[in-house]
Amino acid sequence: MRFRLLKKNLLALLGVSFVIVTLVLMVPENDTTEPNSVTQSQTFGSGDPVKFNFDSLPELSNSVYNANYRQCVLNAELFPGEPHLVLVVQVHNRPEYLKLLIESLQNAAEVHSFLLVFSHDYFSEEINSIVQSITFCRVLQIYFPFSTQLYPNEFPGQDPHDCPRDISKDKAVKTGCLNAQHPDSYGHYREAFITQTKHHWWWKLHFVWERVHVMQGYSGFVVFLEEDNYLLPDFYHFYESMIDYRQKNCPDCDMLALGNHNGFNEFSQQSNKVMTTGWMSTKHNIGMGISREMYYKLMSCNDAYCSYDDYNWDWTLQHLSGTCVSKAIKVLVAQGSRVMHTGDCGLHQKDNCRPEWAMQKVEESLRMAKDALFPASLTLAAAEVPEHKAHMKNGGWGDVRDHSLCKNYAKRL
């Protein structure tokens, strides 16, 4: 049951069935050897957060395993009762942007009624300290157990025997590199740092809805955010207004989009307006609200998501909308965005990150928005017919090892 045993299963390549994911996430009742001697008498969510050990990869792996098992909810005794809203934040390694997000959450109305779930794929004392300093609502941290940080020299990290990205298939076969038979649609071989985000997003979606104990029985939407997002003060007010509007006027709306990428120049005119349309990657991937019903629709497309040759989770979702998901996904969209995107660096741009510029952007946007916050009611600005929007896939996801690992997140043993 220990993590090091899982590595042997994980290294199984083509044609071998992976039996890995649930072992990391759950502990059988008769297992008495889990790390740090967690016993069945200890309730899920109780006690102090797991103290991470960064001394070695096996110790760090055990810390991840233990934390996902224990699921300690911070501040639970201060804010009892069911959460009114669950926010899930995907976190990598941009602590300065994460601090901005937390500042915005602290200033959001009704935040004491939230459950904040931070889903990490990079593990550090600094990031844990930032998250665990939150005192204004309940907080849960979960940890992506197949992070490339935990597998620096083997799949799902970058194995030294993997094929170089740009080698030809003929040359790859001759050299005998591990994944020679499986380049992507454009003839390129996988890069671990590229594939991780799509893996993490799908694992997180499943883990939150199926494995997080404090979420059992929760019937509301889960709003998905990223570490370089910033929430406006009336975020929860607008969320409640959207829920009310959906119930009365758009019961077939599958998702919510509380954010957009339009900027704030016309926020005063757009603050109380919504529209309905088909879900599109470039427009509706910020502040996404997903219901349990929509989660089940997406997970019914587990194989399609995990085998589609695009390393982007959002472009993959757009592909599913109207193909595997039989009806194009219909989304209720905030015209006046309640979520800002502050990041000026990310997956493809890692240098010259300037979080101080992000703060200037936030302050300027808040000045433009402040007089139009907390609208009394919502108005429909437009209603477009949802339809499948085909696009050219981006590749980067041709390796069958990625397909197999991804498909196993949703399987119960």
TrEMBL record:
N-terminal signal peptide: none
S-S pairs: C163-C177, C250-C253, C301-C324, C306-C406, C345-C353
Residues holding substrate: Q90, V91, H92, N93, R94, D121, Q196, T197, K198, H199, H200
Cited InterPro entries: GlcNAc_II, Nucleotide-diphossugar_trans
Annotated keywords: Disulfide bond, Manganese, Metal-binding
Gene Ontology CC annotation, any one: Golgi stack
GO molecular function, one term: alpha-1,6-mannosylglycoprotein 2-beta-N-acetylglucosaminyltransferase activity
The keyword Metal-binding is annotated on this UniProt entry: yes
The organism's place on the tree of life at top rank: Eukaryota
Gene3D superfamilies: Spore Coat Polysaccharide Biosynthesis Protein SpsA, Chain A
Binding-site residues, Mn(2+): D228, H341
Pfam families: MGAT2
BP terms from Gene Ontology: oligosaccharide biosynthetic process; protein N-linked glycosylation
Cofactor(s), by name: Mn(2+)
UniProt cross-references to PANTHER family, sorted A to Z: ALPHA-1,6-MANNOSYL-GLYCOPROTEIN 2-BETA-N-ACETYLGLUCOSAMINYLTRANSFERASE, BETA-1,2-N-ACETYLGLUCOSAMINYLTRANSFERASE II
Name of the protein in its database record: Uncharacterized protein
Organism: Periophthalmus magnuspinnatus
Lineage, top ranks: Eukaryota, Metazoa, Chordata, Craniata, Vertebrata
